[in-house]
Predict the 3D structure of the following.
Amino acid sequence: MKRVRTGILISGRGTNMSALIEAAKASAYPAEIVLVISNIAEAGGLARAAEAGIPTSTISHRDYATREAFEAEIDRVLRGSDVELVCLAGFMRVLTTGFIAKWQGRLLNIHPSLLPAFRGLHTHEQAIAAGATVHGCTVHHVVPELDAGPIIAQASAPVFANDTPDSLAARVLTQEVKLYPLALAKTAKSLRPL
Ligand code: GAR
């Protein structure tokens, strides 16, 4: 079986990234993680990826005058590693239409809400403020409109009356790390070769 060469973009601690790396250790898993790129040099996920033997790269958005130039470098590094599919895993930069178009159908994101509810940032605060009793996470294809692409998979988590944004985030994260490997496998299996 030819496994789909997958790159992961992160900005932080890399919990979801680690779940994808762990799942892809199984030889029968349809994707292999070949590269992790962070836009933040201090991101904890970089060390976790390196420990797992995955090549890493830091591409700081601060080093580029424009979003387009920053993304052109990400694109160059991804293609340099023959990446076929990209997973955003806590990557906290909005991508331009140009980059998204280049990776159409090959760019996934995990978002900590049951989309279309609670797009954008501070989703756990949003859910508590709205009085939601069910919350969760979504893996979706990335399209130019923020957090609006076709949904690949979702998982739910209850909201309890005494939840804080942090306690709710932790509960949702336990679902995220199960969901993302399933969603990546599903997408990788149905992907045409480049
Ligand atoms: C995750 O909860 C992910 O869903 C969220 O950031 C966190 C990253 O944690 N992503 C977004 O909010 C995207 N807009 P991690 O680095 O430990 O996986």
